[in-house]
Structure formats: structure tokens, C-alpha cells
Design goal:
The chain is α+β, with helices and mostly antiparallel strands. The protein has 19 helices and eleven strands.
Length: about 575
Amino acid sequence: MSDVQQPTTNQEDERRLFELLDRYVETLHREDLQTRRSLLERHGDLADFLACLDSLEDLAPAAWGPERAARSEADSSSTGFRQGDVAGEMSSDPTQNPQAGLPVDFGKYELLAEVGRGGMGVVYRAHQKDLDRTVAVKMILANWLAAPETVQRFYAEARAAGGIKHPNIIGIHEVGQIHGQHYFAMDYVEGRGLGELTQNGPLDGETAAKLVASVARAVQHLHEHGIVHRDLKPSNILVDGEGLPYVTDFGLAKVFNSENAQTRTGTILGTPSYMSPEQAAGRTSEISAQSDVYSLGAILYELLCGRPPFKEETPLDTLVQVLEGEPTMLSRLSRSISRDLELICLRCLEKNPQQRYPSAAVLADDLERFLKREPIQARPSGFDQKLHRWVRREPALVSRLSGFLIAATIAQTAYVLNPVDLDYHVRIMSIIGIWVAVSFLFQHMLHHHSLADFARFAWSATDAILLTLLLAVTKGPLGPLVIGYPLLVAAAGLFFRVRLVWFVTISCLVSYSVLLLLHPEEARPPHYPVIFAAVLAVLGFIVAYQVYRVRVLSRFYNRHRLP
């Protein structure tokens, strides 16, 4: 870009140019044409500089498709840039001629059609001319604008799969670059992603077990060669016309005893619905073969019921469920699902890696026992484990029931020690009983997606109302009992909804005001309730702000997460 006329040469303008370049490169990575055009319109004094930047976009791979090439041509005309202005001797290279469309020559390959696209790469069906065979060619989506980490990960994928030979694993033939475009060629499988098999409904138990057993054998082969896949999910498993599955996409594969920028503690890698709890927590040093076993269990779960064990509205909510929640029992979703397959799934999905199958091979063995109608190795959980799972599955209900139990125990003990006013005791216990009943009702509503949001708000409002009613019938000074209001505000933050936190805070403030009218003695001295209300409002603000910050990070993760 030496021929570019710079607007000025002072440091401020140089900094402006670099900032603009950073923003422009981001739009290229996101394929955000609208933002790119907006940048060009807002910075007319930098038109020449931006025209050079725009030319970088036109140097992107032709394999991005003719539709995008047409968009690129339209945008180029708006900036005065034409593809013909670039060195014509490289026009046969798809990285230099995006308007050629497909098919197009790419070295010794002829790119025929795009067959897949992810956050890092794009895959094409191609004809390898020297060996006269059909292969798949994968390229880095961002071309030479890709960050060094992306290039490193791309080649790590090629190295991880390159030395693996297994009938159910996509093999790598060649890796290299043509005119700066990184690529590798691999086996081409005419088929579709495993997830597409459930588009018309869940699979029957035997079909699901056969598929996952075959995948587990392939994954075991990876483990025996010191590789953990770390991103097993239905879209990374291809199924050919004969129903045979093939493991692919080793972009997140980790070689045992290796360390790089993507395996440091605190880095979250993978797809939330299928990643193990240790991955979701960023404890990469704990990732092992059992992590892939967890993902295989999540895949089996989805094949049996049509959805993964955890899939919430945002990646943050999904990660929280992976870390803290328990999957809905398959028998509750469909009575036709075999109890043995449910037990196999539950063992794979254990939070503690040591409680899962010790290897993918052992999982495959158990699935094959199921197919042969032999007793499986996975056994029903004991009472302690079932209770632990129930606590994780229903945390909102369990926390409330714990509070009700403590309150009922105190009330009953007080009555036993001083059995004077039976009517008063009955009123207290009745309110607690009603509270327990409505809590079970709202917990049941939370399991229905269409009612979940209403249930959260209605449950929170009911908590504030019943707490106020309970305090209103309490005899004597309330004292520390009003601590229940701040507890409700703090508990609202566990739902990770900013609006819900503010709703609960306002509900508690209104309820506390009503309580002061019913217990006027609590308003003396008058500055005490003012202080309490102010503390309650500040607490609500702090909790809401923290939830907001987490939500912002969640949105960032959602935009930049790995494929």
C-alpha cells in the first residue's frame, strides 16, 4: 500500500488508521458487509486507504461462493475498486478471483461445491486432478487475514488427524497453502451430519446405540493415539448412505502431554451443549478421555429424544446447566426409551469424570451388550446419588424447601415448648404449607419452555407476597425475620435475568411497605425502615449489575465462540 496517499503523517492520524484497520478486519472476519459499507460512508476522507482495504476482501477465496462474489463485486463498484486492478497473472487462483464462482481450479484441485462451513473454515467437494479422485478440501475462512492462533489451530487439526487411520475417522491426505490460502485435503464422505437424522424425530434405541457404539470405537482409537477430540457433537459426525458414521473436525483436538495457547487453564473450548463440565469450567488440565465420553453421552441423549441434555436460550445459561444442572430423565421425555439406554446416558453424563465410563471402549462394550440383549454394566443410582441428582436438577425448589423446613422446625419447636395458641400455630404452618405447594407448582411450570419465563416472575412475586403474609401474622417484633427480603433479592440473581432481579427488588420494597402498615411498631424509629429500604435497593442494584456484566460476557462469548 505504498501508493496510498495518507491524509496526514502525524501520530494521531496514524493511530486513527490503525484503529480503522482493526475495525475493518473485524468486519471481514464476521462477513459483515453492512458495517463495512458504513465505515466507508463515514470516513470519506480515508477513501483511498479504505479502497486498498476493500481490495483485501476481494482477494478472499472464490470458494466462499458465487453469491458472496456478487456481493463483493457490488461493494467494489461502490468504492471505485475493480478486481481487474489486481495482478492478472494470478487470476487462475481462487484466492485471487472470487468472482469466478464454482467450479474453479485451486492448484491440483478443482473445487466443485461448498459442502460445509464453520466459524474457522469452509469445506468443499473437490476433484483431485492428478489422482482422479473426489476429496474434500478445507480452507481457513479468513484467508491470510486470519489470526496466528487460527492458523496454528488449523494446522493442529491437520496434524491431529493426519496420522490416524481408522474406518470411521476422516483421513487427511495433504496439507499446505496456495497463494497464501491455507488448506488441507481429506477423505470425502457423501452423507450428512448425524444431527440431521433427528430432524424428523428421535431415532429408535437400536439405531442410536449402533451409531454411538461405532463412533465410540473410533474415539477410542484416537485416545489410544494420545488424542482427545474435545468437540464431539452431531455436526462433527458424518453418516454415509449406508448408515456408517465418520468422525471429523479435529480443530479442538488435544494431544496428551502437550500445551499451547488453547489448552491453558481458564480457556473454554467446544460447544456448550456437548462439552463436559470440566471443559465448561475452563479446567483444561482436567480434560481427558472421559471428557469425550461425556460428549458421546450427550450425542446419544440427543439421538434418543431429539435434543441435547442441556440447551438453553444463551450459551451462558447452557454452561451453567452443564456445570450445575442435571439432564431431564429420558423416561420423562418418552416412555418408549429403554431404561438401559437411559442408564448408559446417565453414566456418560456424570459431573465427576471418575464416575463415567473409564474409556470410550467400555462405553461401546455396554452399548453392544444392550444390542445383544445382555445385562449392561451401568447400574441404577443409589439413594444418595439420586438425591444428589434431584438437588442439582431442581435447585430453586430445593433451596426453598430447605428454608421452609427450617422455618417449620422453628415454629413447631416453639409451639411444643409453649403450646398456648393453637390457632396462631395453625396459621403459621398453613402459610408455610401453601408456600410449599405453590413452589412445586412453579417448579413444574419451569420444565415447560412456554411457561418458564412466566413461572420465574410469578414465583418471585408469590415469594414476596407469602413472606409478607407470614411476617404479618407473626406476633411480637419481627427483628431479624425481615432478612427474608434481601435473601429473595440475592436468590433472584441465580436466574441470571436482570429484569427479574429488578422485579424482585421492587416487589420486596412494596411488600416491606405493606408490612410496615400491618406492623406499625416496626416503623419506629422512623429512620430504621428507610435505612433498610435503601440497603434493599442498593443490594438489588448490585445484583442486577453483576448479572448484567455476566450477560455482556455471555453475548461476547456467543459472538466469538468456537464452532
